[in-house]
Amino acid sequence: MSAKPDPSADLADAAAQAPYRMDPSGGCPHAANATLLARGAVAPVVLPGEVEAMAVIGHDALKEFLSHPDVAKGAAHFTALREGRIPDGWPLKTFATVQGMTTADGDDHRRLRSLVSKAFTSRRVEALRGRVEEVTAELLDGLAATESKDGRIVDLRADFALPLPMGVICELLGVDEKFQDQLHHLSNQIVATDISPEDAMAANRDIVAVLSAVAASRTENPGEDLTSALIAVRDEDGDRLSGHELIGTLLLMIIAGHETTLNLITNAVRALCRHRDQLELVQNGKASWSDVVEETLRWDSPVSFFPFRYPTRDLTVDGTVIPKGTPVLAGYSAAGRDKAAHGDDAAEFDVTRYATGSAARHLSLGHGAHFCLGSSLARMEATIALERLFTRFPDLDVAVTEAELPRHASFVGNSVQRLPVTLG
Question: PANTHER family given for it (predicted)?
Answer without folding.
Answer: CYTOCHROME P450 YJIB-RELATED (PTHR46696:SF1), P450, PUTATIVE (EUROFUNG)-RELATED (PTHR46696)
